Amino acid sequence: MRKNEKGVWAAALALLLALGLTACGEKGPQPFEAEKTAGALIEAGAFSEELERLDTDILLRLYELDESEVTAAVGFGSTGLTAEEAAVFEMTDEAAAKEAEGALKAHLDYQIESNEDYRPQEMPKLEKAVVERRGNTLLFLVAADYSAAESVLK
Questions:
Q1: CA-CA to 63 of 20 to 30 Å: which in 9, 73, 102, 152?
Q2: Three-state SS sequence of 43-111
């Protein structure tokens, strides 16, 4: 009987250890994946119009990012009817991501200033815009339906 008790305790301890390790595996939101996140936002119906995919060179110039610090970038923009856009960047490291976050916030400020008189109907979208950094990844989002976007970003 003693031998069985030891086996039960060993199994219970192993189970607790496994559960503890599993709980440590997912702390907070996961980093953005450029292609996957951008595509999921498009598929989720977060935008009121079909957005056009931007070439990487144009994307980096638009957000004023240093190409040597970007490992992956995917972005979509409006054809001019709305202020809607989405971009996801994977940077070389967290320091580069922090610096790029400032550039994305500056881009948002510019968009707000530019659209205030030109397209005032777009201001609610811009006021809810998302600039989010997760580790060495970044998201820039101006959407029509933020609840649809949130379902993807969780």
A1: 152
A2: HCCCCCCCCEECCHHHHHHHCCCCHHHEEEEEEEECCCCCCCEEEEEEECCHHHHHHHHHHHHHHHHHH
